[in-house]
Amino acid sequence: MSEIGIEAADGRTIGSVEKMIDILEAVKHQNGAGLTELTEMLEMSHSSIHHYLLTLQQRGYIVKRGTTYDIGARFLALGGYARMQQNLYHIAKEKIDELSAATGWTSRLVIKNGGTGITLYQAVPTTLSEFQTYEGFEEDLHATAAGKAMLAELPPGDVADFLESSDLTEHTDNTITSPDRLLAEFESIREQDYAFDDQEHFDGFVCVASSILSSDGAVLGSISVSAPEEEVDSDRFCSEVSEQIQNATGVIKITHTYSDWNSE
After folding, report:
1. CA distances from 68 to 9, 51, 92 (A)
2. Residues 112, 70, 61, 5: is their CA dihedral positive or negative?
3. Contact present, 242 and 210 (Cβ < 8 Å)
């Protein structure tokens, strides 16, 4: 018998687990949702969704405020544990803090998780009152500097698979949704060693990022620095901040390689 959350030997997945995850992701996507709203979104009965929500609520993974269901704080325990298992987090955290302090802007460590990017850690200066991301923030790879920096370093076959399977959602008027334009962008990123996000995910914010590669060229993640567009000169922002980011990724790569040697 297959365990919960484990793919069955014949390749099939557990339907009840998939339904539960669909409900959780729908609640997150809607920033909290009511039972009727979830019933309209998902191909499930009103009573079935209610039973899932009640079970999750009893276990602390869903909270109910009035008639609205939302993600419970117990997920923080799982997320915190997952992050602590990431060697890259321990290696890069100090450099992320240093970048934020040096630039005065939000600095993030992002990892690739399937077809999306997840913020593993971010540092925000106390002087900055407005920022759009948070630790655990999930983003479309094609629409951010951090995501494009990672995609540009993937093997061509992996990039082709991503472009074929991704919806390439348009988040702003500047989001690149053309596969051909993205491929050209990736080539430029490899040539200049950094990616630029010109208000492609959030209106009013620009971002520069570089990938973190292992000693054998595998993509470990990326580091980004973002700022309000009206407060920076884009050319100077790219040239100065990208150099700082590349210095940080270089140190992280060396530390990661040394860490791998010690673990063998």
Report:
1. 38, 15, 38
2. negative
3. yes
pLDDT > 60? residue 1: no
Give burial (CB, 10 Å; 0-12/13-18/19+) of 127.
Answer: exposed
| Domain CATH code at residue 35 | 1.10.10.10
Specify the DSSP class assigned to residue 136: T
Give the domain CATH number at 128: 3.30.450.40
pLDDT, position 261: 59
**Three-state SS string across 200-264, please?**
CCCCCEEEEEEEEECCCCCEEEEEEEEEEHHHCCHHHHHHHHHHHHHHHHHHHHHHHHHHHHHHC
Closest by CA to 227, choosing from 208, 246, 201, is: 208
- The pLDDT score that the predictor gives to residue 260 is 63
pTM exceeding 0.85 = yes
8-state DSSP, 101: H
Tens digits of residue pLDDT in 124-178: 988 776 678 999 999 999 999 999 999 999 999 999 999 999 999 999 999 999 9
Task: Decide if 186 contacts 196 (C-beta within 8 A).
Answer: no
Give domain status of residue 138, yes or no.
yes
Q: Two tokens at 233? A: 């000169």
Alpha-carbon span 200 to 203, nearest angstrom: 7
d(CA 111, CA 248): 16
Q: At residue 178, what are phi and psi to the nearest 5 degrees?
A: -95, 125
Number of Cβ within 10 Å of residue 186's Cβ equals 21
Gyration radius of the chain's alpha carbons: 20
Contacts of 143 by beta carbon, 8 Å cutoff, 6+ apart: 169, 171, 175, 176, 197, 200, 201
Structural domain total, the chain: 2
Number of helical H runs and strand E runs in the chain: 9, 9
